[in-house]
Amino acid sequence: MATAVLDLDINEGDTFIMTIDFWEDSDNTLPLDISLDTFTGSFQIGEKLIPMTMTILEVNVLEASVAYQLMGDLSKKGKYDIDQLLPDNEKFRLIQGNVRINKEVTV
Question: N or C, which end of the chain has less CB nearby within 10 Å?
Answer without folding.
Answer: C
